[in-house]
């Protein structure tokens, strides 16, 4: 899985994700500083990367074609744990596995995550909530 970290995501996320085996990670600052959201989104799509962001403005792109958007709540105590646990749960979920991560939109909060995805050209949201370990 390839990630693109938005400029509002702390630098240490890259090293922490690498510890979990995710090694193809770029920061948006590698492409320029202060880029507008639509440019960040275009880069993520062109590079076929899942965008990780804290910026809720990217919710506007959730119905567009992309390679995944992970929207993090700024209140997460252990964001890396939330990301990795959620990705592992999604990989095991046979009802969703064919949709992950092309066009998937994940919203992670301190209590749960929700997923939206495209199925047969229509955008759907899964109302199930997964719990994850905060440790």
Written account of the structure:
The chain has 135 residues and is an alpha/beta fold. It has one domain (2-126). 24% of the residues lie in helices and 24% in strands. It has 3 helices and 7 strands. The chain has helices at residues 12-19, 37-46, 79-92; strands at 2-5, 24-27, 50-53, 69-72, 105-108, 113-119, 122-126. It has a 7-stranded mixed sheet, with helices on both faces. It is globular, with a radius of gyration of 14 Å. The two termini are 23 Å apart. 27% of the residues are buried.
Q: How many β-strand runs?
A: 7
- Rounded to the nearest angstrom, the radius of gyration is 14 Å
Molecular shape: globular
Give the ordered list of helices and strands. Answer: EHEHEEHEEE
**How many separate domains?**
1
Which features characterize this protein?
3 helices; alpha/beta; 135 residues; single chain; seven-stranded mixed sheet; globular
Task: Describe the SSE topology.
Layout: E1 2-5, H1 12-19, E2 24-27, H2 37-46, E3 50-53, E4 69-72, H3 79-92, E5 105-108, E6 113-119, E7 122-126
Please provide a brief summary of the model.
This protein is of the alpha/beta class.
């Amino acid at each position: 899985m390839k990630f693109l970290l938005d400029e509002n995501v702390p630098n240490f996320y890259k090293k922490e994700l690498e510890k979990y085996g995710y090694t193809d990670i770029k920061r948006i600052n590698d492409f320029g500083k202060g880029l507008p959201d639509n440019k960040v989104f275009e880069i993520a799509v062109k590079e076929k990367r899942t965008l990780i962001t804290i910026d809720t403005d990217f919710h506007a792109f959730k119905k567009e074609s992309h390679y995944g958007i992970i929207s993090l709540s700024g209140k997460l105590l252990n964001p890396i744990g939330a990301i990795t646990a959620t990705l592992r749960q999604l990989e095991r979920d046979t009802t969703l596995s064919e949709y992950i991560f092309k066009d998937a939109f994940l919203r992670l909060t301190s209590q749960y995550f929700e997923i939206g995805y495209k199925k047969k050209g229509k955008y759907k949201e899964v109302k199930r909530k997964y719990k994850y370990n905060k440790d």
